[in-house]
Design a protein that fits this description.
2 domains, 70% helix, elongated, mainly alpha, MetI-like fold
Length: 268
C-alpha cells in the first residue's frame, strides 16, 4: 500500500518538477538526448526574460484573472448563497421541486450550453467584459448544492431566535448563516480559484481583445501556440510561474476543502 502511494505521489509530482527544472535549462540542455532531468547550470534569468524580453502582457493577464475571480466569488456567495439559504430555511413554494430542478442541471454536460450562453451574452452586449464570467458564476448549481447542504445543518432554533429579536431574513443570512458557514465558503474560494485560474476555453470564446484575456488564455494563445518565437526554456518559466499561485493557494487553504465538503454532508 505504501509503495502504491509512493508511486502515485511520484507520478503526480513529476510533471511539476519537470516543468520547473526545464525552465532553468539552456537551449542545448533542453533538447539534449538522452534528456537530463536536472540542469547543469540553473539559469534563473529565464524568469526575468519571461517578463521583459518578449512584450508579453503577463501583468495584464494576471490582473484580468484576479478581477474575474473576485467577481465570480462575490456573485457566488451573494446570489447562490441567498438562493441556498432560501431553499433551506424559508417557505419557498414547491421547494423540493425547485431543488430537484437545480440538481438535475448537474446531469447536463457543460459543453451543451456553451453556445446558448455565448449567444445570450452576445445579444446583451456583454462579450469582452467581465460580466461574461460573473453572470454564469451566479448560476452554479454545484455551489448551490454545497451551500444548501451546509445551511441545512444550521439549527433552525438559532434563526428563529434572531427573528424573535427583530432580525430580518437578510440580516439573519449575513449575521448568522454566513459567519457559521466559514468552512464551506472557504471551500468555494478554493474551487472557484482553481476553475478561474485554469479556464482557457470559455475566455477564448467570449474574449477577443488581447488586453482582456485571463492568464490561461493568454498563455495558450501567445506562449504555447506552435508559431510562437519564445524559446522553450522561457515558455516553461512562464508555465512554472503560472503553476505556483494555485499550488500555494491550495497548500494554504487545503484544510477548508476536507472540512467544508465533510461538514456540508452532516445534517444538524
Amino acid at each position: 500500500m505504501c509503495l502504491l502511494i509512493l508511486l502515485m505521489t511520484v507520478t503526480m509530482i513529476y510533471p511539476f518538477l519537470d516543468t520547473f527544472f526545464s525552465s532553468l535549462k539552456t537551449r542545448e540542455e533542453f533538447f539534449a538526448f538522452p534528456p537530463k532531468f536536472l540542469p547543469e547550470k540553473w539559469l534563473w534569468h529565464n524568469y526575468i526574460a519571461a517578463w521583459t524580453d518578449f512584450n508579453l502582457p503577463l501583468g495584464t493577464f494576471l490582473k484580468n484573472t484576479v478581477f474575474i475571480y473576485l467577481g465570480n466569488i462575490a456573485f457566488s456567495v451573494i446570489f447562490i448563497g441567498l438562493a441556498a439559504y432560501a431553499l433551506s430555511h424559508l417557505r419557498v413554494p414547491f421547494k423540493k421541486w425547485v431543488t430537484l430542478y437545480f440538481l438535475s442541471t448537474l446531469l447536463i454536460p457543460p459543453a451543451t450550453y456553451i453556445v446558448p450562453n455565448f449567444l445570450n451574452l452576445q445579444s446583451l452586449g456583454l462579450t469582452n467584459t467581465y460580466w461574461a464570467f460573473w453572470l454564469p458564476a451566479a448560476t452554479n448549481a454545484f455551489y448551490l448544492v454545497l451551500l444548501k447542504s451546509f445551511f441545512d445543518g444550521i439549527h433552525k432554533e438559532i434563526l428563529e431566535a434572531a427573528r424573535i429579536d427583530g432580525a430580518s431574513e437578510l440580516k439573519s443570512f449575513l449575521r448568522i448563516a454566513v459567519p457559521l458557514s466559514t468552512p464551506i465558503i472557504g471551500t468555494l474560494l478554493i474551487l472557484s480559484f482553481s476553475t478561474t485560474w485554469n479556464d482557457f476555453y470559455w475566455p477564448s470564446i467570449v474574449m477577443t481583445e488581447k488586453n482582456m484575456y485571463p492568464l490561461a488564455t493568454g498563455i495558450y494563445r501567445y506562449v504555447l501556440y506552435p508559431q510562437s518565437v519564445i524559446p522553450w526554456s522561457i515558455r516553461f518559466a512562464i508555465l512554472a510561474m503560472a503553476m505556483a499561485p494555485p499550488i500555494l493557494f491550495f497548500i494554504t487553504f487545503q484544510k477548508f476543502i476536507v472540512r467544508g465538503l465533510s461538514v456540508s454532508g452532516v445534517k444538524g
